[in-house]
Known about the structure:
- This protein is 36% helix and 23% strand.
- By secondary structure, it is an alpha+beta fold.
- A hairpin with a 6-residue loop joins strand 8 and strand 9.
- The protein is elongated and about 75 Å long.
Amino acid sequence: MTRTPEKVPALKNKLFFFSVKRASRSLGFTLIEILIVLGIIAAIMAFSFSRIRKNENNIRSVARNLIVMSKEIRNHARLTNSTMRLVIQFDPNKPKYWVEKSSGNEIREANSKEKIADTTSSEDAPKTTFQLFKTLTKKEKELPKGLFFSSVEVINQDIVSDGYGFIYFTPEGFVDAAALQITDKKNTWTLIFNPLSGQADFLPEAKSLKDISR
Length: 214
């Protein structure tokens, strides 16, 4: 049976309407999918931004604490005519720091050979004249979750990135020229200790003593 010429335009119109309708449906699903993806991306970005802000707040809090502590250690070392030190523990699970005071004329050794104070009362702990200075740190202070000590660089000493690091404060008011780096595994911040003033300066980037002396 042959179609009459009059029916052909009507058939074409129906086919065109069906194609447009199907394309509109396809386009609608595509827009919904795009909106879903954009929503997921926005949620991830919001979470990441919140985490970055939290880490920044934590590092600034730690930096302020260490800056104030550095001044107090120096003052106590001068007032009590004793050698004191800031101890850094590079524990990958629970990085800590605390203050120790010497009860005698302790001679500084290489970082790798130095002994920490016996805070565990263990008979097997290495002996030293340094003891936990509870006036400033009643116990070891842990870094906030997600922050780690990266390294401590002391002038004329090897850079330490595991075990224990030490920054010394003398009875004369001098402090080890040192660079203490803290990281969240993505960003690194640095505390620079001034040997004459005992002032610790906070830098929002990774810096070494050589960078500062240039």
